[in-house]
Amino acid sequence: MKSANLAHSADRHGILWHIAVMLRQWFDSDYRPPGWQGDDKLTDGIDWRRCIPFIVLHLGCLSVLWVGFSWAALVAALLLYAVRMFAITAFYHRYFSHRSYRTSRWMQFLFAVLGNTSCQRGALWWASVHRHHHQHSDETPDVHSPRMRGFLWSHIGWLTSPKNFPTDYSRIRDLEKFPELVFLNRHDQLVPILYAALLWYAGAWMEKHVPGLGTNGPQMFVWGFFISTVILLHATFFINSLAHVFGSRRFKTDDDSRNNLFLALLTLGEGWHNNHHRYAGSARQGFFWWEIDISYYVLKLLSWTGLIWDLKVVPASVYREAQQLKLSAGRNPA
Ligand SMILES: [Zn+2]
Ligand SMILES: [Zn+2]
């Protein structure tokens, strides 16, 4: 989800230079041209060049008018939404950003690849931005705070800002020591392109070998890539926007984070955002059995297979705090 981000030097270079750098950065997000003034000089605002990928993705959904509908394509889109939402919540968020459990180097690589199919850039960029969010939640430096910059900015505007484009490696020293993760992060278009090509191929294969399904390459591509990905993007972005605006607040955190059942169902557990801001190090975000957290259930299953281990739990002190807040709310109803 990116394009060039060189607005700060727009006065010194021609449009061709900008296009060349933009294309180069599409294939290597860590590329900096000769004479680069430094990432700290990047501007903070909406850059139309970085809007292009979002516009293309949304317009791509309209091609459903040409490729049509089939149950196979719809089921594929829903399944791919669920798998990739799990990859974002359980891998990009709970593993790479918060290290709330442990796994092997091979699995870690697989997690980064699966998360990358969501078109939300590389795991290292994602984790670096997210750690920054927890450090400055709803304060001035927070890159996606509805309190500070409004709902639309927190939802999608911040992603188009040149300032938020680079990966801040100083925040992910624990991850940058793995060259395979750095490679994926730099070349973060590689996996989405492969994913899209695979969908097209799978659809073409089905058309030939299982014609009864009524699907084909272009249809599987439109439903599995454009439609599924756009819904996935907005559902993820809701955690930055809606989950800081609508819902209940169990804990009196310094930010505006909320617990929201609808968002928890939509994002497989991320909607318990107030819980999460109170204690981010836990592998579960639904702190109680009635707070549905599908990502946590799957992580628990994975831990029984031995593929992941050391799932971090919510400390007893946090549960006591929740209990005390509930009791005091009962004594002093609002
Ligand atoms: Zn938050
Ligand atoms: Zn978090």
Automatic annotation (TrEMBL):
Q: Name one GO biological process term.
A: fatty acid biosynthetic process
Known EC number: 1.14.19.1
Task: Report how it sits in the membrane.
Answer: Multi-pass membrane protein
Pfam families the record matches: FA_desaturase
User: Where does it reside?
Assistant: Membrane
Q: Please report the stretch or stretches of sequence annotated as the Fatty acid desaturase domain.
A: 70-281
Q: Does the keyword Nucleus apply?
A: no
The answer to whether UniProt assigns keyword Amino-acid biosynthesis to this entry is no
- What keywords does the record list, in alphabetical order? Fatty acid biosynthesis, Fatty acid metabolism, Iron, Lipid biosynthesis, Lipid metabolism, Membrane, Oxidoreductase, Transmembrane, Transmembrane helix
What domain of life is recorded for the organism? Bacteria
MF annotations from Gene Ontology: stearoyl-CoA 9-desaturase activity
Q: What class of enzyme is it?
A: oxidoreductase
Q: Where do the TM regions start and end?
A: 51-69, 75-95, 190-206, 221-243
Record's GO cellular component, any one?
Answer: membrane
The record's comment on protein family reads: Belongs to the fatty acid desaturase type 2 family.
In Swiss-Prot or TrEMBL terms, this protein is called: Stearoyl-CoA desaturase (Delta-9 desaturase)
- Species of origin reads Prosthecobacter vanneervenii
For this protein's source organism, the top of the classification is:
Bacteria, Pseudomonadati, Verrucomicrobiota, Verrucomicrobiia, Verrucomicrobiales
